[in-house]
Amino acid sequence: MVFNFFSTLGLFYINKMPNKKIALITGVSREMGLGFETAKQLAQKKYRVIITARDYYKVKELADRLLAEGLDVLPFALDILSDDSVENLVSKIETNFGKLHVLVNNAGGFYDAGANALDTSLAFAHEVFETNLFGAWRMIKSFTPLLEKSGEGVVVNITSGAGTYSDPDFGLISKSDTPLYGITKLALNGLTVKLAPILKTKGILINAVNPGFAATYPGYAEWGARPVAQGAKGIVWAAILPKDGPTGSFFMDGKNIGWQL
Ligand SMILES: NC(=O)c1ccc[n+]([C@@H]2O[C@H](COP(=O)([O-])OP(=O)(O)OC[C@H]3O[C@@H](n4cnc5c(N)ncnc54)[C@H](OP(=O)(O)O)[C@@H]3O)[C@@H](O)[C@H]2O)c1
Question: Would you please indicate which residues are annotated as catalytic (active-site) residues?
Answer without folding.
Answer: 181
